[in-house]
């Protein structure tokens, strides 16, 4: 019961505060540098939530390695020019800069030029991310809205709503469907 009250208060505070979470920049996690296209629609009108599948990370060092591994996979296997997401969130409570606020992603065809793609590191098919990750995710969205990077009437959706996939996992999908600006249709 106490945890539920804390999460509810965190949701209300996040929406009101506009504080930004701790964002680990690209150079701090060892990013390969690339040149990226700017968003066509800026500020973004959609926030698309993903999960990475695979293991989660509970400390900054491990999360940096997971983010670098995801970037390598996206470049080498998918043949993308960089990591596909704008941001990644670890269960350590940190946010890791992928492409950043103003760059077009490679995470959701037909939405990449008008959305911010946020990936929570781990597999959330059967259980949601921990409170640290959920709070960082909420803070990041609020930060984007407050700083004018995301429109105030943005649509929050799960990746499965814009592409045939199980992403962001059933447990995370169920969680975000209760959040502010959730859109049943993108």
TrEMBL record:
GO BP: innate immune response; peptidoglycan catabolic process
Disulfide bonds: 20-143, 57-63
GO molecular function, one term: N-acetylmuramoyl-L-alanine amidase activity
Keyword entries, A-Z: Disulfide bond, Immunity, Innate immunity, Signal
The keyword Disulfide bond is assigned to this record: yes
Signal peptide: 1-18
InterPro entries: Amidase/PGRP_sf, Amidase_domain, Peptidoglycan_recognition, PGRP, PGRP_domain_met/bac
Biological function: Peptidoglycan-recognition protein probably involved in innate immunity by binding to peptidoglycans (PGN) of bacteria and activating the prophenoloxidase (proPO) cascade immune response. Binds to 1,3-beta-D-glucan and PGN.
Name of this chain's protein: Peptidoglycan-recognition protein
Highest classification ranks of the organism: Eukaryota, Metazoa, Ecdysozoa, Arthropoda, Hexapoda
């Amino acid at each position: 019961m106490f945890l539920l009250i804390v999460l509810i208060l965190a949701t209300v505070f996040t929406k009101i505060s506009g504080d930004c979470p701790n964002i680990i920049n690209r150079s701090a996690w060892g990013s390969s540098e690339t040149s990226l296209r700017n968003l066509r629609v800026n500020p973004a009108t959609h926030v698309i939530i993903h999960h990475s599948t695979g293991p989660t990370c509970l400390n900054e060092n491990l999360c940096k390695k997971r983010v670098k591994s995801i970037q390598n996979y996206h470049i080498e296997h998918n043949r993308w020019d960089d990591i596909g997401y704008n941001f990644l969130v670890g269960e350590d409570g940190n946010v890791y800069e992928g492409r950043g606020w103003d760059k077009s992603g490679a995470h959701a065809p037909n939405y990449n030029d008008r959305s911010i793609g946020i990936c929570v590191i781990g597999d959330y098919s059967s259980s949601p991310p921990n409170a640290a990750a959920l709070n960082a995710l909420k803070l990041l969205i609020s930060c984007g809205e407050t700083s004018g990077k995301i429109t105030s009437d943005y649509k929050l959706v799960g990746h499965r709503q814009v592409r045939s996939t199980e992403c962001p996992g059933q447990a995370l999908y169920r969680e975000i469907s209760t959040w502010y600006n959730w859109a049943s249709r993108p």
